[in-house]
Each structure stands twice: as structure tokens, then as C-alpha cells.
């Protein structure tokens, strides 16, 4: 290209370059905008209004920013299963799938990260999506949630801003699937309603051990409505039967390199092995009469309802028991929507939920090519559907007859609306009144009390991890002003967090501040979670000439506890014991790493290869540094002695194989051993 042509091209492009800095905010039509914090509502606690053209333009543009993968939750994996209610929930809701314990409702669940692209790693620090589609006899019900019960923002109009700040920075598309950069933390510092969510995001909850070991939450406040028309505010919880467990940060980063598919592989293999993931469904219920009885607004999506104040009632269990046949056709084409409800489940004026009710349909239109995404096999309800909608991209239904409108006489006015008694959906009749305003209720303005509640509820180890997470993330921020703003913001939560983080990143440490909340919610700490050895993966390090019978005794005992051994050595193939017993090797030191296992069982052997010993000791040291259980028998004990980690917490040795096996299984159940 000649210089003349290059200059012409540069001039042409220059006319499209726009610098927004220092300008007033407008719509795409050039209309100056007076408010960009709040949607247009009927009263300060009322519903969002359809006439809010600014919200609709902003959200529509955001929904259509990425083609073809999801803008958020792009990196996902899914499975089929079934849900059974334990006993009828008729007292609270008329939803049929929550009535009969003998009925199994098919489900499809998609787990995901939020910020990264479809090609990103799975163990990054991030919230996780936990979306469930119930195929009920009354239609599809979608419970679209996360593994964290609160969110960064209170109003959906700010969702594009949040994600723009979280995503790779637009000038260089760096960093991928990371929140440790300037624009994200600049958003946090200048949108302080995010304080509570950030505490969760910097905790161990954001680096789960597996999809099978994390909670799920509906996040929003919904309504249950029973046959008599009585309503309760409700929040939904998924409680994993295996408990809530996490990776440690160094381990999470290494796993991202060693196996970026770690979480999907874990889910896939668990189902293939018959170790079906199970989650109990719990609900928190507040009567409408008690709407204002708490020190938080029940409609605020940045607030939890502490379980000690509003107990979780367990009402059923979901089991994931079948893997997908085709990831694209099922996992990628599934379309969730919080507006897919059934009679007995209704909405509230939670302003974040109100916006999602618009956004989800809008984003599916561009991502799945048009209005017929409900006809894709994974999205089709199990009950029949009839309406006057016709044509469009991807239409599969072949409608017969000449009528496609309501009302009509040619087809006897069918399909006709169903009465409430016939199962027709009737919205809960909530009284709404108020001026059309862009504002938020004063009851939404406390941003730090529950952030401090979360901090108070953590164990000392969990607090240390939060400090380290803040220090890592803010240490990656280049803008010193942003760093200081975040420190000053979290001084409003607790100086016990703000001061050590400030010291770690070279910012000015605050000398005053901190919330005076001293309340504790033990349910928030993972240290109080269920601890069992089931489905834990143990790397067994061995070489030739071990005592095969004794090793087999150990492994058989571990298997009775649901523990899964996989063999690691210097070469693939078969390793033979001195007594002729053989084990097939699953991983070499090159293809397997200690970070891919929950525990190590070090057997050793009579190998004289120095390289074998060095590789084994590297495994041992790394697992020890990640606080994992380590067991050793036979020649493995001498390797532990060599690196001086015998008689440490979670390190089990022994010569009586049955006693050793029982003690080792107990150590594995503890997951981590923080006190060593």
C-alpha cells in the first residue's frame, strides 16, 4: 500500500474514532441522559417500566455485543438429571413439580464461569453460573443462578457497565478471564454497592474444587404463591451433598495450565463412573407481613438473608445422572431465562431481576438467530405448546390451519386462554403506586454491613485467603489512584482487611473506619461444611517391586469409602509388585501433576533411578504446600522422612494396612489440613 493510500485510509478511519473522555452521556440518538444509575420505576421500590427507552437501548446493545458465544457465562458445561421433592410444598406454592414426592422431574443444569471467553480456563477466580431447567408438566421453569448468593449491582441498568469493566480491557484485549486489572477495580471503587459481592469473590468460594462441591443460589427474591393466593417471599438454594470445598489459589493457577478443562472433566468423569452429583433444594421463606422486619431490604440483590435469621427449608433433591450427547446441541444451545416460570412462582420488584426479565429474551434472539430458540430440542418443553406465533428463523413446527390470531371465530377462538383453574398463569396482584422516578429506595444504601458480616463469619484461614486475594488482584492494578480508592472503600468494612492489603501493595494504610457490625453467620464459612471422602481422587505413586497384596488392601479399603485411586509413575504401562500383583499406570510424572489430585498415597518401590525419586518428592512437596492429605507406606515413608514432613497434620504413615487405610480416609475427608 502506497503512503498516499495509507494516509487516505488513516483519514477515513479517523472520522470513526471517538474519544468519550470529558463528554456528557447520551443515548445512541444523541439525547443527553440525566441519570444512568437507576432504571425508570413506578415508585422507588416499584417495578421497572417498559417505557424506559434508555435502559432498553443500553441493555439491547449490550445483549448483542458478542457473536456467537454468550457475552457472559460463555465457558460452560452441562448435564442431565432429575429432581424429586421430599414432601409436598402445597402450603407455600401451587407449582405442581413441588407437590408429589413420587414424581421425577427431568432437569438440565449448566455450570459456567462468568467473565472468560469460551476458550478460557475453568479454575480462574470468578463467580460460577448454576442454571437449572426443570421440564415440568406445566412448562419449563428456569432457576438461573450463581454459586454466590448476591451480586455486584442492585439495578440491571448497570450490568453492561459491570461486564465492560470486568472483561479484557478493550485497547489490548488483556487480561482474559481475570478480574485482576485496572478497569474492574476502578468500577468497584466507584460503585460501592459491590462491596459485599467482592468479599465473596475474593474468598475461596470463587475457586471451587468442582461443580459438584459448590452451592447454587437463585440470587434474587422471588415469590411463592399457593392455591389460596397467599404469597411468601422466597430465595432458592442448592446445597451440594458432598459439601462446599475449594482449591487454594496457587493450585488453581497451576491447574489452569495443567488442565484448563479441570471442572468439566471432573463432572463428566463423575457421571460416567456412576458417582452422580447430588444437590438438595432449599428455600428461605419470608411472609409478606414481615417484609420490613429485617435490617436489610428483602428486595436488594446485594444482600443475603442470613440462614440463622431465615432458616433454609430443604424441600427436595436433584441428581445429575446423564452426560450430554453433543456439547453444541445441548450445552451451547440451551437458553435459560428467569422469566420462564410456572404457576406458583412469581417475581418481585428486585430491580436487578426486573431488568433480567427483559434482557434474557433479547440476548437469545441474537445468539440463537431468532425467536424460535424454544424449538431447539434442548429447550423444548415436555408438555405441548400452542399459540399464534408463526415463522421466523429456525422455525421447526409445521402449523396446520388458516388461523394465526386471537380473537377468532374460524377456529372457535382457539388456541384460547386458560383460566387460573385450568392452569393458566396469573400474575400475583401486588398493589403498585408511585411517581415515575429514576432513583432507589433509601433501604438499599447500606453497602458495608453485610460485607462485614461475611468477614466476621470466616475462619482465620479463610480471612488470610481473602487478604491474599485482594493483595494479588490489586497488586496487578497499575493505577495507584484506583488501588488507593479500593483500600479506602474496604476500610469501611474492616481495617483488619484494608491495612494488610495496603501494606502488601504499597498503598497508604487507613487509620480509621470499619463497620461496627459484630454479627456472625456460621453458615457462610466453608469450614463448617459437610466433610466426606466420597469421590476424592488420590494419586498413587509407585514403582516396581512393591508389596502388591498390602497396596491392594489399602486401595480396596479406600474404595469402600468412595475414594478413587489413580496410579502415577515414570512410564505408562504396567507396574508389577514383588508378589506378582500388577497395576496399570494412569499418569506419568509428565502427564499428571499433584494439583490434579485431592491427596497422594506414596508407595515407592525398589527403583534406583534418581530421577524417579526426584519427581516423586516434587509431587509430595507440592501437595504438602497445598495442605493436602498425604499417605505413605513401604518405601514411601523414607521419602517423607527425607523431606521432613512425617508426623505433620494430615500426613499418615503406617505398617498395619487396615489401620493406615482408615486413618488416611479420615484425613482425606478433611479436604485440607491448614494447621501444619
Automatic annotation (TrEMBL):
EC category name: oxidoreductase
Cofactor: heme
Coiled-coil blocks: none
EC number(s) recorded for this UniProt protein: 1.11.1.6
Keywords, comma-separated and alphabetical: Heme, Hydrogen peroxide, Iron, Metal-binding, Oxidoreductase, Peroxidase
Keyword tRNA processing in annotation: no
Record domain Catalase core: where: 26-414
Domain of life: Bacteria
GO MF annotation: an example: catalase activity
UniProt biased composition (Basic and acidic residues): 1-24
PROSITE patterns in UniProt: CATALASE_1, CATALASE_2, CATALASE_3
SMART domains: Catalase
InterPro entries reported for this sequence: Catalase, Catalase_AS, Catalase_clade2, Catalase_clade2_helical, Catalase_core, Catalase_haem_BS, Catalase_immune_responsive, Catalase_large_C
Swiss-Prot/TrEMBL catalytic activity: 2 H2O2 = O2 + 2 H2O
UniProt-listed Gene3D superfamilies: 1.20.1370.20, 3.40.50.880, Catalase core domain (2.40.180.10)
Region (Disordered): 1-28, 507-532
Family: Belongs to the catalase family. HPII subfamily.
Task of the protein: Decomposes hydrogen peroxide into water and oxygen; serves to protect cells from the toxic effects of hydrogen peroxide.
Protein name: Catalase
Biological classification of the source: Bacteria, Bacillati, Bacillota, Bacilli, Bacillales
